[in-house]
Write a structure and sequence with these properties.
Dihydrofolate Reductase, subunit A; about 190 residues; single chain; alpha/beta; 6 helices; 9-stranded mixed beta sheet; two-stranded antiparallel ribbon; binds NADP nicotinamide-adenine-dinucleotide phosphate
C-alpha cells in the first residue's frame, strides 16, 4: 500500500483554508492536483468532500472519512464511506490523502502504519483572498512532522507563485512507480 499526502498551503502560516474554502485560486495548482490524482483513489474528510462541486471529482474514486455511519455519498458506485481510519493501516492500494486539516493530521500523527510514504508539498507564496470570512485552518503540526521525518527528493518546481516539492518518509519503503508517476505529473 502507498499513501500520498497532497496539499497546497500558504507560505509562512501553513493555512490551507478559511472556513470551508481554499483562499486562493490558482488554475495550474488544480491542474497539477488533477494530473496526479486522476484515475486514482482520494481520501477526503467529510468537510472537504462536501466542498467538491456536486460532492464529486471526475475520474476519481473517493473514500470519505466521517464518523457518521449513515452518511450518504453522491455517487455510491465510485465513492465509499470509511468510519474507522484504521482501515488504512492494512488496505491494499494507492491512496491520495486530499485533506482537510483533520485528515492530514490524523494520518501524519497517527503512527507509522498511517503515515504517508510520500508527501507532495505545494506552497502558495501570494496573498490570501481578503473577502473570505471564517476560521483559518492550518496544518502546522503536519509541516513539523514533514520537516522532521521526511526528506525532499525532488527539486523545487515553481509555477504561478506556487513552489511544489516531493518528500519521502525516512526509512520507509517507497513504491518507485508511484514516485515516478507523481514527478512526471508535476513536470507535465
Ligand atoms: N489547500 C488544500 O490543499 C486543501 C485541501 C483540502 C481541504 N482544504 C481545506 O481544509 C479545510 C477543511 O479541513 P477540516 O479539518 O475542517 O475538515 P476535513 O478534514 O475536510 O473534514 C473533517 C471531517 O472529517 C471526518 N473525520 C476526520 N477525521 C476522521 C477520522 N479519524 N475518522 C472518521 N472521520 C473523520 C469528520 O466528519 P464527520 O463530522 O462527518 O464525522 C470531520 O468532521 C477547508 O478550509 C478546506 O478548504 C484545503
Amino acid at each position: 500500500m502507498t499513501k500520498v499526502a497532497i496539499w497546497c498551503r500558504h507560505q509562512g502560516d501553513n493555512i490551507i483554508g478559511i472556513g470551508p474554502q481554499i483562499p486562493w485560486r490558482i488554475s495550474s495548482d488544480f491542474k497539477r492536483f488533477r494530473r496526479i490524482t486522476e484515475n486514482r483513489t482520494l481520501v477526503a474528510g467529510q468537510t472537504t468532500y462536501e466542498s467538491f462541486p456536486g460532492r464529486t471529482l471526475p475520474n476519481r474514486r473517493i473514500m470519505v472519512l466521517t464518523f457518521d455511519t449513515a452518511y450518504e455519498v453522491s455517487d455510491p458506485q465510485n465513492h465509499q464511506v470509511v468510519t474507522d481510519i484504521r482501515y488504512f493501516k492494512e488496505a491494499e492500494g494507492e491512496f491520495y490523502l486530499s485533506g482537510g486539516a483533520s485528515v492530514y493530521k490524523a494520518f501524519l500523527t497517527g503512527g507509522s502504519k498511517l503515515m504517508p510514504e510520500i508527501i507532495v508539498d505545494s506552497m502558495y507564496c501570494g496573498s490570501l483572498n481578503p473577502e473570505l470570512k471564517g476560521q483559518p485552518v492550518d496544518i502546522t503540526p503536519c509541516i513539523d512532522v514533514m520537516n522532521k521525518e521526511y526528506r525532499q527528493v525532488s527539486k523545487d518546481y515553481e509555477l504561478d507563485n506556487v513552489v511544489t516539492t516531493v518528500h519521502i518518509r525516512k526509512g520507509a519503503f517507497v513504491d518507485q512507480a508511484v514516485l515516478k508517476h507523481i514527478i512526471e505529473s508535476i513536470e507535465k
